Amino acid sequence: MGLQQTPQANRLHIGIYGKCNSGKSTLLNAILNQDVATVSSVAGTTTDPVYKAMELHGIGPVLWIDTAGFDDDGQLGSLRIEKSKQAIQKTDIALLVCRSFPLQEELTWIQEFKKSNTPLLPILHVFDEEEVNDEEIETLEKVCGIQPLVVNAKSKLGIDRIRERILALLPQDYGQESIVGHLVSAFDTVLLVMPQDIQAPKGRLILPQVQTIRDLLDHQCIVQCCTTDTMKKALEALASPPALIITDSQVFDIVYQQKPKESLLTSFSVLFARYKGDITYFIQSAKKIKDLTEHSKVLIAEACTHAPLTEDIGRVKIPAMLRKKAGEGISITMVSGHDFPQDISDYDLIIHCGACMFNKKHVISRVEQAKAQNVPMTNYGITIAFIKQILDKVVY
Predict the structure, then answer these.
(1) For 201, phi and psi rounded to 5 degrees?
(2) Model confidence over 168-177: pLDDT tens digits?
(3) What is the pTM of this model?
(4) Across the beta sheet with 60-66, what order do the strands follow?
């Protein structure tokens, strides 16, 4: 998969934040060595966040996020600031660009970064090297808790050091995450049972399936694929039972009835619950399903914004399961994309999709929000496994 085909969810998200006219867009253009962000002396030029994918040497594919000035007081300023705050939820590393003192607005945003556990690189952006002030550097280091980097985008002063500082902020295990490596060994045979129903895109596989296959190949596994109705023939064609069977959560029960007792069973959604979310919290929260009644309120959240289909798992199948279990009166609200409420305290349970379109930081930010408001949160695969009473028979 080439650079441009790398999904955004698999890229390191680096956000650039700062006041209007602090030189955020100029800095981004200097880093990328190309004009991708509009630069103007007029405050508020950057409105919605601007996203730019690129390869960063020593790190790999990254996604730069150029945000609006957080002191924007224009007609749409509050909306722009809100979009910048939403961008924090997916930001793996934040560059805080400072140009003018005092740092009152910056202090507020530094607290936002700390609250979301976002690593921060403070940048003192100067337009003239003679402007460098040791006192300002010390002040910035004191409020951020990390030594700032002095940068001049025009002369390229400090630009080459940005990559080094980003590397230093990365966790030691960055890039070593695996979807399924903890469940397999080299030369294991793994059977993927993938129903090609109305929800399956014509002529291609969905992203979680593709990523899982690639991860299995990277672990030197022997991968076999079939549909639900050909599973029996696929098993007969194998010399011995597969070490692992991975399927779609909605056919858990069908696959479980046919699987050899020696084979472990899981689903793409369950694997992604561990890969991108908090699997322990998801499993703990799924147990709350038994307490739901027709007076309960459930929020179902999807990362993507696809057009709903007649057999849609989030809009049709899971709601039907919940109504059958808890009663027709249960209240179910559906949101998609970035439309996730700030106040979720009124819900008895949140059920999230596998989030293949989100990076892990984005998913975890929602988990932390749910924990902070004491709301149980699980995902599609865990929910279906619990309702079908095979959660204890699924590996993750």
Answers:
(1) -65, 135
(2) 999 888 878 8
(3) 0.86
(4) 50-56, 60-66, 12-18, 93-98, 120-125, 149-151
Amino acid sitting at position 80: R
* Helix or strand holding residue 348 (H, E): none
> ∠58-10-26 over CA atoms, to 5°?
60
Give the CA angle between residues 382, 385, 390 to the nearest 5°: 135
Q: Residue with structure tokens 């630069």?
A: 39
In angstroms and rounded to an integer, the radius of gyration of the C-alpha atoms of the chain is: 24
Beta bridge partners of 60: 56
- Other C-beta atoms within 10 Å of 393: how many? 14
Report pLDDT digits (tens) over 233-276: 999 999 999 999 999 998 999 999 999 999 999 999 999 999 99
> Please, are residues 287 and 348 in contact by the beta-carbon 8 Å criterion?
no
Give the sign of the dihedral formed by CA 267, CA 270, CA 274, CA 280.
negative
Is it true that the peptide bond before 122 is cis, omega within 30 degrees of 0? no
| Letter string b/e over residues 269-304, b meaning 16 or more CB atoms within 10 A of that residue's CB | bbbbbbbbbbbebbbebbebbeebeeebebbbbbbe
Residue type at 183?
L
Q: Among 9, 11, 15, which Cα is nearest to 94's?
A: 15
Direct distance between the N- and C-terminal alpha carbons of the chain, in angstroms, rounded to an integer:
26
